[in-house]
Design goal:
The protein is an all-alpha fold. The chain has 2 domains: about 80 residues, Rna Polymerase Sigma Factor, Chain: A, CATH 1.10.1740; about 60 residues, Orthogonal Bundle (Arc Repressor Mutant, subunit A). Helices cover about 75% and strands about 0% of the residues. Belongs to the sigma-70 factor family. ECF subfamily.
């Protein structure tokens, strides 16, 4: 790797092999902490190495190598979690998915339906898009012509309100 070490940085006193070992250990720690499926950690770290090698020219401060690498690894772990979430739903046969949704306690569903009915139409639509249809916040924002931040804030506040009322 062509990373120049700065003498003000403790990493500068590590040999290149020691630096790479430390970098690998740090990335693995971050990835294992973030991943839902821990056995994917090696693959995510390997993908992070590839990304680091491809993007090494974008690292502005060479003494920030380890934090930069950890951020890349964390982002890739989040991406892997997101991919797994979609994979789980897509892997279920349609009949199984439908039956798993029907297995919810009918009394709880009636209460939840009543709570949704009490909400304003925009908030109800946001929650249905997010949790029933599984749309992403950006997709909801586009559909309702709202800023993404507004969508996220309304969903968060609505979830908290429902939780309090539901309990």
């Amino acid at each position: 790797m062509n990373f120049i070490q700065n003498s003000n940085n403790p990493e500068a006193f590590l040999s290149e092999d020691e630096l790479l070992d430390e970098l690998y250990a740090q990335m693995l720690k971050v990835v294992r902490h973030k991943l839902w499926h821990k056995h994917d950690a090696g693959d995510v770290v390997q993908e992070a190495w590839v990304r680091i090698l491809e993007k090494q020219s974008t690292l502005r401060e060479k003494d920030k190598l380890i934090p930069w690498a950890k951020a890349i690894a964390a982002n890739l772990a989040s991406n892997a979690n997101r991919a797994r979430r979609h994979e789980r739903i897509d892997d279920l046969p349609e009949s199984e998915y439908a039956s798993s949704r029907r297995d919810t306690d009918p009394e709880s569903m009636a209460e939840l339906t009543e709570l949704l009915g009490l909400m304003d139409p925009v908030t109800r639509t946001l929650l249905l898009y997010k949790f029933y249809y599984g749309l992403k916040d950006a997709e909801i924002a586009t559909a309702l012509e709202l800023p993404v931040g507004t969508v996220k804030a309304r969903i968060h506040r609505s979830k908290a309100k429902i939780k309090v009322q539901f309990e």
